[in-house]
Amino acid sequence: MAEVSNAALVRLERTIATVSKGLRNALIANQNWLILLLFIADVSFRLPLALSLALQGDSATHALVGEQIVATGRLPNQIPYFVTDPGKGWPVAYPQFFFVLLAGGYAVAGEAGLKAISPLLGSLTVVFLFVFARRLYGVKVAALSAIVLMGERHLFIVTIETLMESAVALFTLVAFFEFHYYIEKRRNRDLLGAIAGLALLLSTKQQAYVAILSLVLTTPLLAAFFRLHRERKPAGWSFPFRAALATIIGALLIASPWLVLQIQTAGTVDYPPGLSITQSFMTPKWTVDPDSMRVLNSIRAVVFYVPPEQAAGFLVYLQFYTAPIPFLFVIAITTVVGYLVIALDRTKRIFAILLSANQVTYVFLLWYWALPWRYLVAVAVFSALPAGLGAFRIIELAGKFALRSRIRPVKALESYRVISLSLVLFLVVVPTVVNLEANRNQALIGNQSTTGGIFWGRMEYVKEAGAWIERNTNDSALILGDRWPEVAYYSHRRVIALSELGGHDLPLIYSSWDPAEAKAILNYYGITHIWISQLQIDRSWYEWIPRHGLIDYVDYSLPESVPESINHHLRGRVERNPTRGPTSATLREPVRRLRRLLRRECRDGRLRGSMESNERRRGDPRSRSAGVHGCVD
After folding, report:
1. Rounded to whole angstroms, how far apart are CA atoms 248 and 201?
2. Global pTM?
3. pLDDT at 133 (0 to 100)
4. How big is the CA angle at 79 (ends 77 and 84), to the nearest 5 degrees?
5. Which residues, including other chains, have CB under 8 Å from residue 15's CB and lie 6 or more apart?
């Protein structure tokens, strides 16, 4: 028995020694320990912040779809709780692979698991950039590039919020570099990697078609390069065309279930309001309301337009960093140097062609089509490698200068190591750390603000208001509000707002001085409550509520059943903005006349809710909500 035990112990010791040796070789000999270190460092900063932020905007929309998948066990046709016109919802106009990822996180750990998906994808993006850059330029350039990407603003924002671009950044990176390696090495495994990356991108969001466009534009340049410098036979210089075709067709075949589902759900691969080029051969199941578009365009005060010189600035991180100006220009200079190094390196012509095609395509579309800022994450991810490469070349040149220096104190200080370490800190590490802190502050501010301004604690009030609505209304309630994803997510009730697909009469409820007109519109849409949030009366892109009308005569004093924190919040708003409250001297007489008219309407039983007096509102508690003024009949 003792001999058997000793033999077992010996085998166990040998197994442990073998595993330890394998781990040492995998992590240390191949520099893979840096991968683990980068992942831990990135996720330790990104994940806790993401978990601490409240879901809002599109993040709340995506979370609703993910939770719906878990609740029903199937993929939805429409976004839960969203109403555009009577009897109409908002279709899920995306491939739903990202929503399935969110559903998996939600099934495992609830809302925390759902929130964790995007930051984990962001950390994987940093790791994959390191892996790909190491194959191109070595471990030092790869490490510097990954550190730069850790502090980049756009990737940081889309990954601490639950946004699709967190997956878009990762899948675009994989598809791009694997396609490059296939063109360079012609290995089948690289082709499979490129197909997998593009297929996942097609299964996530419409940005995949920008990647395909970039790929198509790249192939003639690659063919010309092969024709001039490598292979003059047609079988040689036509290889880029065959590689691109194989990648695109293979990706479309793999992603076809998601694309077919999207077409069955929305009728098209586009997103509302859509492009005329896609609508020429696909008929969407949603219909853009011309009247609503006209109202939206007349109300919106902000038009997203990027001049050409600013669009070009995105290539060198001039628009990507939130750090102070000195650090911003440090990163910009290293990125410019990196682009020059890539352009002048004859051994990296294929990489230079692919990189320039991707970056120029996005910058042109940003300027020409006014792409949303989130699309720029694809530019930011790829600019990190030139930034790391530029920093490395600057450090290398400075070190060589120090070695050749005749100044004795410089030599005495072991100049190469000292100068190299100092420049690493100055060019990469310090700007990244400063920018990470700036990004964190921006994220905290952004989570408590809208395009109308900042109010600390806003999301806590939104959560309380949503919980109050859920307790005091039933499933038939329909709430009118401006930031409808938040209302829907925290109240689990149907919401309606002015959008491209409908609701063109909704602003009249706020601006009209005629109760009969407002009542008719409320009845037409079936609205039971009106949500008046803290910042919605400011004129901006999303907050489409008119400045005058309902806002002028609404009574901000709330009944006792409303949470005290919200009551205090609204009273504070009136004190801070007296010209917008019901005590404005210029509006006092019109308000009195309107209130007299409203009381008469209420006595006749024709109107009550958001426009009734405070005394009337103390009647039925079901017609009130926290921060929300009911309008029911």
Report:
1. 11
2. 0.81
3. 94
4. 105
5. none
